[in-house]
Design brief:
The two termini are 42 Å apart. The chain has six helices and 47 strands. It is mainly β. The longest helix is centred in the N-terminal third of the chain and has 15 residues. The chain is globular, with a radius of gyration of 28 Å. It has a 22-stranded antiparallel barrel. The protein has one domain: TonB-dependent receptor, beta-barrel domain (Maltoporin, Chain A, Beta Barrel), CATH 2.40.170.
């Protein structure tokens, strides 16, 4: 059955569909260069094939003064990736979050996703998210950016003072292509692809195209690129809704266990999403004189993400009475890391022993960038200026929920990766046993906007050691907002009518994958028919919905960031590098509504502060031999907290009794870091390198939970805090890249990170959020006579999340196999095929105490397509 709800208006197209789609061909478009003369030299290099692209990547790495890794446009095109995050995870030290099947957030060198920035052409891109439970972070939402529009990806792991602050793990700069970098006066590229997703058994089209024109004199050019990707997604799972609330547990004999954790409940969710991403990029470039260059770049990405989630639920904490007491027959407990008992089994009911929650979301994410950049070169100086604006919005126009309940006893057993439930008095396939109790609608919107201006002047210095000095300044004006409107409908509302599930169901759900299930898991149940939900459910309940602003969830955060910096480039004998300092002043204001008296009456509050950071850096390269380099770097870096953590708002859970709140007075992160490495370029397109690194952070963020009065109701409220101690991350990166000859080659990299935190009050230590001790990428390839094939394996060991029900979340080790192949039928036409997650790896999360949290399967994807370039 298909998910059929009204669709929103689509992204206005920049050009007509006849322009086709981008074809990831680095042979026709070289990576972005920092100034006009460099761009001219790049135009003379033609790149064909994997080996040639790897050779160019190594040349850029070798010439850099920073410790940096690069992926070029053609290399991205030879991977099966559909967004930039999936391309980045092929590099050493980078892993991605695949919870939704595609990489969306990145982790760099053992640091959390929120401690790494991504920029487009050297500037920030506003990002937002679609899901209600997503926090508004400073991380880049890679969902918005398809790989086809990329010229190159540079990951700076050691900073320079002219690079923006805000990253502790690494700074990613995505560069788009410019019209005057193309070799031919007119270039056209397109690709058409069919992608088959195995779990939903659905095939979708993927289309992209590029048209570039420049005049013969190379003084004017225009580039237009578009990408349209559709994907039908299904994710099967089993969930346990862990809860920080403590309850009184009473067994059938009257024995009492006070102050015990109990999950609200859990379920068997089947999540389906129709993704449609449309991205357009328009670039105009002028070179009025031989020593000047001006470009205007506009990017618009819109992603329609309508989805449904149907979850058949058991409850424990959700059955507590007004005194937080739960009656359980034969309860079973474990003792968690903080010394508190937690319920892991027993029999509940018969009253409301089962619930069923179908949710239909009309969701979206969009981002826009308008950027003006100019360069002017003198005989001994270079002037660069850049100004622009970026905005983003995300959320849901509707997030409709039906709430059904039924009476039955339910026996529950939860253990690591175990989600067992037996409904003793009913059959989950019988829709007549569940009755509709209420309906709800959430309308959420996250907004972000930033304006920026930057100017740099670099001057040559007639000195045997200092070669040039660069001074600059940058100003950023940034604002994010969050608000939610909640609609409710139920008994007593006009036109309310209760149904049984049988009135909205036409049969059973598809069986969820057995890869996610254990022997006692519920894997099939009666569910809502999408067509009946839209025609019979939405139409009536929308009329009876009563909407009100969720006053406590609103927040607005404003930042004005000013930076000034100086950098000196030096070279003498075998030495070269740079050193400098960046001074940054941040003025921050957090506004929200607060119920100060606990009476349900909200008043606006505003909390502001200002802080200044001084960030020195040094990069050094020593050339032992022409093909053997030693590198070193030291720096002080900083990163700001997430917007959600800095908010003054309080958000009440839609499922449990709990709430989450921010802390506007959180201090930013600071770190002192160092690097030392060696690179041996022993053959053509080949290299062996090793880098040891260390980071010492002055703080980390942890959460604590306490009972608070929220709008007149006592709830457990979880807030973030700065730890008095920091954390250390020490690690090793190894890379091996070699072209063996006869078309064979390989790329292998491994990263080890040993990350530790200081102790919290009471002496408890946590694992570093986001860290995996071991990461491995292996990518053998073969390329000859127009045919190429690559197999890649990406592995990360277990990684850690936040505090959870007395312990800490830990996601099990994850390894994924992908493959890609292409055949150049003619110099202009090529046929290609991709396979993603071939072995159908699943994502498993438990707490460190063994409580299950979630296990999810996203399935495999296969695609077949054609590319052309003219």
């Amino acid at each position: 059955m298909t998910y059929n709800v009204p669709r929103k208006k689509r992204l206005p197209q920049l050009i007509t569909f006849a322009l086709g789609a981008v074809a990831w061909q680095g042979a026709w478009a070289q990576a972005d260069a920092p100034a006009a003369p460099a761009a001219d030299s790049m135009q003379q290099v033609e790149v064909h094939g994997l080996r040639a692209t790897q050779k160019r990547n190594l040349l850029e790495k070798r010439d850099a003064t920073n410790i940096v890794d690069t992926v070029s446009a053609e290399d991205v095109g030879k991977f099966p990736d559909k967004n930039v995050a999936d391309s980045l995870q092929r590099l050493p030290g980078i892993s991605v979050d695949r919870t939704w099947g595609e990489g969306r957030d990145i982790f760099v060198r053992g640091t959390d996703k929120n401690l790494n920035m991504t920029q487009l052409n050297g500037q920030s891109v506003a990002s937002a998210y679609w899901w209600k439970n997503d926090s508004q972070s400073r991380g880049f939402n890679y969902d918005i950016l398809p790989s086809e529009l990329v010229g190159s990806l540079d990951v700076y792991k050691s900073p320079s003072s002219d690079l923006d602050e805000g990253s502790i793990g690494g700074l990613v700069i995505v560069k788009t292509r410019k019209p005057l970098q193309f070799k031919e006066t007119v270039t056209g590229q397109f690709s058409a692809e069919a992608t088959y997703s195995k779990l939903p058994k659905k095939t979708d089209p993927q289309l992209s195209g590029l048209f570039n024109w420049r005049n013969p004199e190379r003084t004017a050019g225009m580039l237009i690129a578009v990408s349209q990707q559709k994907r039908t997604m299904r994710r099967d799972g089993l969930e346990n809704f862990t809860d920080a609330t403590k309850y009184t547990i009473v067994d059938q004999n009257g024995a009492v266990t006070p102050n015990a954790y109990a999950s609200w409940g859990g379920g068997t969710p089947i999540f389906r999403q129709n993704r449609e991403r449309q991205t357009g990029n328009l670039t105009l470039q002028l070179r009025p004189t031989a020593n000047s260059d001006v470009s205007l770049n506009y990017l618009h990405s819109y992603m329609d993400m309508d989805n449904s989630n149907q979850n058949y639920l058991w409850q424990i904490g959700g059955l507590a009475d007004a005194t937080n007491t739960i009656h359980i027959t034969n309860p079973r407990f474990i003792t968690t890391s903080d010394g508190t008992k937690a319920v892991v089994g027993g029999t509940v009911g018969p009253t409301t022993g089962v619930s069923f929650e179908p949710i239909y979301r009309d969701a979206f994410v969009k981002s826009r960038v308008l950027d003006l950049e100019g360069n002017l070169d003198g005989d001994t100086w270079r002037l660069h200026g850049q100004a622009g604006t970026t905005s983003a919005a995300g959320g849901s126009n509707h997030d409709r929920n039906f709430w059904f309940t039924g009476n039955t006893r339910a026996t529950i057993n939860i253990a690591p990766d175990t989600y067992e439930v037996h409904y003793l008095d009913m059959n989950p396939l019988d829709p007549t046993k569940l009755t509709l109790q209420s309906a709800r609608d959430w309308i959420r919107r996250m907004d972000g906007k930033e304006s920026y201006a930057q100017a740099d002047l670099e001057m040559d210095v007639d000195n045997s050691f200092i070669k040039s000095v660069k001074v600059g300044a940058k100003f950023r004006d940034n604002e994010v907002r969050n608000h939610r409107i909640i609609g409710t409908d139920g008994p007593g509302h006009p036109g309310w009518q209760s149904y049984s599930l049988a009135d909205l169901s036409t049969g059973a759900s598809p069986p969820i994958s057995q890869r996610a299930a254990t022997a006692g898991s519920l894997t099939q149940f009666a569910w809502v028919d999408d067509g009946l939900a839209a025609s019979k459910g939405f139409a009536m309940y929308d009329k009876g919905m009563t909407y009100a602003e969720a006053m406590g969830e609103y927040y607005r955060i404003k930042e004005r960031i000013s930076a000034a910096y100086v950098k000196a480039n030096y070279a003498t004998g075998p030495w070269r590098g740079d050193f400098g300092v960046r001074v940054v002043r941040t003025r921050q204001t957090s506004e929200a509504n607060q119920d100060l008296a606990g009476t349900g009456v909200y008043s606006p509050v505003s909390i502001g502060r200002t802080y200044t950071d001084v960030l020195p850096s040094l990069n050094a390269v020593y050339e032992l031999r022409k093909n053997l380099l030693l590198r070193g770097a030291i720096a002080r870096v900083m990163a700001r907290n997430t917007y959600s953590d800095l908010s003054a708002s309080t958000e009440v859970s839609g499922t449990t009794n709990a709430a989450t709140a921010g802390n506007p007075l959180l201090k930013p992160y600071h770190a002192d870091q160092w690097e030392l490495g060696a690179e041996w370029y022993f053959a053509d397109a080949s290299m062996i390198s090793g880098t040891v690194f260390g980071k010492k952070l002055d703080t980390f963020i942890y959460t604590s939970t306490a009972m608070e009065n929220v709008a007149g109701v006592m709830r457990p409220v979880t807030r973030p805090h700065n730890a008095d101690n920091g954390e250390t991350v020490n690690g090793l990166e190894l890379q091996w890249q070699q072209a063996f000859g006869n078309g064979f080659g390989t790329i292998v990299n491994y990263t080890f990170t040993d990350a530790k935190t200081g102790a919290l009050a009471g002496g408890r230590k946590l694992n570093v959020v986001g860290n995996s001790r071991n990461q491995l990428n292996v990518g053998p390839y073969f390329e000859r006579n127009g045919f190429s094939v690559r197999i890649t394996y990406n592995y990360r060991s277990k990684s850690y999340g936040g505090l959870d029900e007395g312990g800490q979340d830990v996601t099990s080790a994850y390894g994924q196999w992908d493959a890609s192949a292409s055949w150049d039928i003619t110099p202009q036409w090529s046929l290609y095929a991709n396979a993603v997650n071939i072995a159908n790896a699943v994502i498993r999360t438990n707490t460190t105490d063994g409580l299950p949290v979630g296990v999810y399967e996203n399935g495999s994807r296969y695609s077949l397509g054609v590319r052309a370039k003219f």
